Design the sequence.
């Protein structure tokens, strides 16, 4: 009963802290998910013009591009990242079993277990574990393209009619986004083979956008007043810089996990977990996925004297979210489902130190993807361009880390996650620091 009371109290404390953080993040003038669609203004990319139409009205220099109308991959990729966040194994520290000959609980393994994957062992009846950790993602690339220099070409309305409509605007776009995750997790052993856990993430998101736009007067070289950016001297300039930024923080998507272990067969253990994800994070500010999710998983592990390998297989079903649809219009769309496959081992170097290594894979199904293309202008000149397709792909990461016993039942965790391929929205290296306490 005391353990359950502590679990409830811990949940209330963390939710209270995250509510304060969310209130602070609510001051962002524009929701983060809308920063890309509104980077060039509410009407898109419109250049200055002094040209007159036959009816005497001023020509409208409006240009279009898939960068704004089709660049949904960024929001979907970030939502997929949040939907499959690598939370620490809630029961990855001390595990116990009752020894009837001594009448006390004894540790069942020397290893403290993996960090970003799971092993089949449970923590033991009546045992309680809680912990905290912090991860920070600073995204560098999307589909291998540097997020500091994403190219996009804007074409004029009715470009097929020729004349001044042959002009184009090229842009070099910078999308700098970082996500900090402060995760709290609590696990209680209901029986010796059944655990229940809850994970409460507090998310901080920061986004900084920049774009340099350049007009190429392919059809109006002799009439610069048709399409221009007003320069500092009042002249007909060809370049303009745009920028936008925002930040938010608050409660992310809460995860409830149940774990059941089959009777042990020698050194081999088999368990099943089911995670239920609740859309408690503000998806418009990129604090959550905005969709319900269910993730059943099978865990197979082997316990030896010092080396314990493990394999995890899971499938993530995701519901619909505005991040998977049209954020500006509030239209919802399905987030891509994911198949997750992890394998690794943890080595109990001593009773106070465990080393862990994992290969972490995600198969993301039928998701929008950015592809690098070439745009050919009416005069034959070519420019780098970003296009979009829909396909399935694999995100593969490696992870290495260590767990140290700080005395008693306190563990200190350190881990480094690093990318092994370029697919999707990626951070080159993501550090993790945390601690666990069991009693």
Sequence:
């Amino acid at each position: 009963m005391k353990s359950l009371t502590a679990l409830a109290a811990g949940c209330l404390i963390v939710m209270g802290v995250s509510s304060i953080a969310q209130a602070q993040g609510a001051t962002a003038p524009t929701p983060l998910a809308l920063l890309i669609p509104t980077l060039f203004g509410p009407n898109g990319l419109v250049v200055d013009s002094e040209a007159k139409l036959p009816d005497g009205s001023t020509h409208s220099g409006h240009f279009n591009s898939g960068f704004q109308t089709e660049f949904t991959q960024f929001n979907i990729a970030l939502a997929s990242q949040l939907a499959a966040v690598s939370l620490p194994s809630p029961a990855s520290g001390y595990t116990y079993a009752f020894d009837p000959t001594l009448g006390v609980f004894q540790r069942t393994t020397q290893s403290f277990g993996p960090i970003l994957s799971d092993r089949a062992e449970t923590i033991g009846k009546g045992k309680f574990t809680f912990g905290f950790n912090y991860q920070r993602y600073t995204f560098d690339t999307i589909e291998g393209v540097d997020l500091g220099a994403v190219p996009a070409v804007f074409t004029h309305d009715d470009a097929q009619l020729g004349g001044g409509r042959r002009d184009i605007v090229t842009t070099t776009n910078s999308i700098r986004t970082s996500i900090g995750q402060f995760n709290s997790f609590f696990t209680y052993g209901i029986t010796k083979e059944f655990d229940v856990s809850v994970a409460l993430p507090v998310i901080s998101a920061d986004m900084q956008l920049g774009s340099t736009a350049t007009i190429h007067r392919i059809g109006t070289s002799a009439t610069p007043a048709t399409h221009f950016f007003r320069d500092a001297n009042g002249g007909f300039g060809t370049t303009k810089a745009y920028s936008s930024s925002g930040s938010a923080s608050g409660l992310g998507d809460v995860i409830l996990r149940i774990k059941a272990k089959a009777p042990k067969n020698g050194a081999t253990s088999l368990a099943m977990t089911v995670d239920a994800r609740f859309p408690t994070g503000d998806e418009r500010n990129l604090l959550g996925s905005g969709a319900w999710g269910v993730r059943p998983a099978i865990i197979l592990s082997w316990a030896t004297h010092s080396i314990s390998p493990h394999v995890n297989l899971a499938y993530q079903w995701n519901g619909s979210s505005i991040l998977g649809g049209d954020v500006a219009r509030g239209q919802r769309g399905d987030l891509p489902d994911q198949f997750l496959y992890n394998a690794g081992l943890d080595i109990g170097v001593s009773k106070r130190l465990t080393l862990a290594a994992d290969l972490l894979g995600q198969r993301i199904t039928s998701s929008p993807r950015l592809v690098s293309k070439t745009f050919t202008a009416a005069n034959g000149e070519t420019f780098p361009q970003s296009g979009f397709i829909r396909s399935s792909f694999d995100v593969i990461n490696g992870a290495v880390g260590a767990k140290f016993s700080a005395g008693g039942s306190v563990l200190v965790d350190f881990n480094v996650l690093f990318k092994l391929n370029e697919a999707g929205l990626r951070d080159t290296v993501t550090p993790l620091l945390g601690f666990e306490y069991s009693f």
In short: The chain has one domain: 2-438.
